[in-house]
Amino acid sequence: MSSYGIHLLCLLTLFVWCRCDRCVSPLLLTPFLDAGNITAALEVSKVTDSKGIVPKSFSGFITTDRKARNHLFFWFFPSSNDTNAPLMIWLNGGPTVSSMFGLFYENGPIRTITHTNGSISYERRPVSWADPFSMLYIDNPVGTGFSYSETNSSKTTQDGYSEELYLFIEQFYLMFPVYYTRELYIGGQSYAGKYVPAFAHQIHTRILEGTSKIPLTGIYLGGPYFDPLIQSAEFCEYYYSLGAISHSKLQKCKKNVFNLDIMVSTGNIHTLEYSELFRMAFSKTVPGSRDNYVTSQYPDYNSVEDLMRTESMKTMLHTCNLVYNVGNTVLKYKFKDDLLVGTKAKMAVLMNRYKILLYTGDYDGIITSPMVEAALMTTPWKTLWKLGDKLKGFYVQVGQFCRVVIHQAGHQTPHDQPESTLDMMIQFVQHGCIREVTEGA
């Protein structure tokens, strides 16, 4: 398309978004950025909440594969407290769980409310990461949440989705160039143990090549799945130690993981479907909810999905005619070749240069603390983290690496312990790890 054509397209898009009460098509921001119309991109991507509940924010789509016409959706909240705040990227895992779930259920500035009549709305969250930090939530990979492909070309390998995330962040900095002067932290939870190190490694490689000035400072991972076979081997050991499963079920679980290991080493892993791989890696013999094995509390995925499907939300977020899914089951099964591929080697490279935080909840029954320890192996344990008489968790720091276990929290750690996780994040940014401690153990 010619320069004139791009400018005309931007003008037409701007007219539609500024003059219509209902949006017509998803807001694609890349044409504005290509034309250098940054002011227009910022204007049309503003989120306007008629209720006055949602703080200043921006949302829209950035094109990450022009040939396949792939578009990643984002919702960005500049810090409400500090104009110099670091930029924090949040990615949920799954794979294919929308990061809007993390926004509403875990650490964003708003959360869902289910009323007595069954209707869903939202309110401000009293403890939010979007106060001290500028929070950027991205539906990753394409095909997750509102992110979509016009050619059904979602990327389901580390090279694929990390490349699209890199192309996304390059364009994001065109829209918000002031963040070149702020620290960048990339993080998330669970399967983001794949997304985040792969994405950060993409940035790191380009920094070394001299082709990127993105100010990557560190990564943070909650309940991360980053060394599949080692972590899966510890999965049932944990439940056996709690007395939650029998010895025979423990042996069955170990056999599953052993067979997986053999299939990987012999190259026969491709003969299994995703569902069978997942069943073998995470035995279904474990009772109850694994998000928090003490409370048996299941995450409220439905309320997030119901809210994001309302016409008012779709208009406010410029997503228009798209259908929102908090999880994409069809796409998840395409991650078969990625499921057992680890990121520990990439993590080792990143540890030499950037701050790293790994945290888990001690009630997390999906990615348990022993699973993370097994992947780390040589981590020395541990120092008590207390505030007065209250135990907040445990931590250890080695160089730029920080490991924290949050007390009385499950897999959705920020939801279960909002104050402790926010305190942890602030201390990680300011000091590299926990500083408010009582020595022990």
From TrEMBL:
Gene3D superfamilies in the cross-refs: alpha/beta hydrolase
Extent of the signal sequence: 1-20
UniProt KW Transmembrane keyword: no
Pfam families linked to this entry: Peptidase_S10
GO biological process: proteolysis
Top-rank taxon: Eukaryota
UniProt keyword Thylakoid, yes or no: no
InterPro entries: AB_hydrolase_fold (IPR029058), Peptidase_S10 (IPR001563)
GO molecular function, one term: serine-type carboxypeptidase activity
Keywords: Carboxypeptidase, Glycoprotein, Hydrolase, Protease, Signal
PANTHER family for the chain: SERINE CARBOXYPEPTIDASE CPVL-RELATED, SERINE PROTEASE FAMILY S10 SERINE CARBOXYPEPTIDASE
Similarity section: Belongs to the peptidase S10 family.
Protein name: Serine carboxypeptidase
Source organism of the structure: Candidula unifasciata
